TrEMBL record:
It comes from the Bacteria. One of its GO terms (molecular function) is methyltransferase activity. Keywords: Methyltransferase, RNA-binding, Transferase. Residues 46-157 form the THUMP domain. This is N6-adenine-specific DNA methylase. Signal peptide: none annotated. PANTHER family: RIBOSOMAL RNA LARGE SUBUNIT METHYLTRANSFERASE K/L, RIBOSOMAL RNA LARGE SUBUNIT METHYLTRANSFERASE K_L. One of its GO terms (biological process) is methylation. The keyword RNA-binding applies. InterPro entries: DNA_methylase_N6_adenine_CS, RlmKL-like_Mtase, RlmL_1st, SAM-dependent_MTases_sf, THUMP_dom.
């Protein structure tokens, strides 16, 4: 018997393809990329697994109804007509998240209010009492998405954004989001098959995500809870089986993951977060200035980092990016070096030609993930040798 249903995994711009690949690798059916989203099918167990294991998903939502809608009164009637008793009771709390892109609906807050009124009135008319709204910690979070005249109603199975993995308690100024960190690592081709360096590691998010990828540890194993755990039909035994089977797929990692930062406070924060993630056996963090460092291995090295932006650190941008290029050229032969920046002008000062540039967003900032291949010896010598 096929108990599969449709779901949507939401993500960041530029990560649709790698999220689709993640879903296929997990066993999702009918995977289809959208804009900042990937559509797929699976059963309840797969919904649990998607929340637990996906690295580049921000939320997993379960569509429950869709209809055409003309105006606010039409929205109220059609929401009221739904059988909300399958999802809520008078003792559960709920919240509405609305997104609108329509000429007929211009305010998402008004759509949320109308939806809430329809649900509350349905319970009051039927049971004489109503469920309460709890915006911060609801038992059930309902998504309303109106595009032109199409309204889609879905249940948010994740709750808080899935970038909140649960291991990061100490952060620096403007830390990199965990989903963004995982996405950058996957875009860079990181698979745990060599040594890894983040030479400007901050609070250690890239290091932690790199270790979890290398060891195939479920991305959200350290999370306290998911929204689906409060649903009427939550199957705790099935969820426990999903967690156990996912942990059995972890693998050993036999290389080094190292982070540098010149700020003692950043080193301490990174070490604390790594302890929280139970990854101290795999990651070493040292107080070191990247510009005074040299490659620590004679084998291939994979480097991914997030250089500080002007607002995060008082730096001379031109000198700073020139130093990045000079350090890579002089001290890091045999290295694939990737970094993200929103300062596209500053890339000119690196003095190296990137072999790849990938458009991504860091929060609201349009950025580029750039790759520099540092050959052993000179590039010319490498190609002469190959002939």
């Amino acid at each position: 018997m096929n108990n599969n249903f449709k779901m949507v995994a939401k993500t960041m711009f530029g990560f649709e393809e790698i999220l689709a690949k993640e879903l296929r690798n997990l066993g999702a059916g009918n995977v289809e990329e959208g804009v900042r989203s990937v559509f797929f099918e699976g059963d309840t167990g797969f919904m649990y697994k998607a929340n637990l294991c996906l690295r580049t998903a921000i939320k997993i939502v379960k569509p429950i109804h869709s209809f055409r809608v003309r105006d606010e009164n039409d929205l109220y009637k059609k929401i009221y007509a739904m059988d909300w008793f399958d999802y809520l009771s008078t003792s559960t709390t709920f919240a509405i998240d609305a997104t609108v892109n329509s000429e007929n609906f211009t305010h998402s807050l008004y759509v949320s209010q109308k939806t809430k009124d329809a649900i509350v009135d349905k319970f009051r008319d039927t049971d004489g009492s109503r469920p309460d709204v709890d915006i911060k910690f609801p038992d059930v979070r309902i998504n309303i998405h109106i595009q032109n005249d199409q309204c889609n109603v879905a249940l948010d199975s994740s709750g808080r954004s899935l970038h909140q993995r649960g291991y990061r308690t100490a952060t620096n100024i403007a830390p990199i989001n965990e989903v963004l960190a995982a996405g950058l690592l996957l875009l860079s081709g990181w698979d745990g098959q060599c040594d890894f360096l983040d030479p400007m590691c901050g609070s250690g998010t890239l290091l932690t995500e790199a270790a979890m990828i290398a060891c195939n540890i479920p991305a959200n194993i350290n999370r306290k809870e998911f929204a689906f755990e409060k649903w009427h039909d939550f199957d705790a035994e099935l969820f426990e089986k999903i967690v156990d089977s996912s942990l059995k797929r972890t693998r050993e990692f036999n290389h080094k993951i190292i982070g540098y930062d010149k700020a003692p406070s950043a080193v301490r924060k990174a070490q604390d977060n790594i302890v929280n993630a139970n990854l101290s056996d795999y990651i070493t963090v040292e107080r070191k200035n990247f510009f005074d460092s040299e490659k620590f291995t004679d084998k291939h090295l994979h480097m991914v980092f997030n250089p500080p932006y002007g607002e995060r650190l008082d730096i001379e941008m031109e000198d700073f990016y020139t130093d990045i290029g000079n350090t890579l050229k002089r001290n890091y032969p045999g290295t694939d070096a990737w970094f993200i920046t929103s300062n596209l002008e500053a890339l000119k000062f690196v003095g190296l030609r990137p072999s790849r540039k990938i458009k991504v967003f860091n929060s609201h900032l349009e950025s580029r993930l750039v790759k520099y291949v540092m050959y052993e010896g000179s590039k010319k010598a490498k190609f002469n040798k190959a002939e």
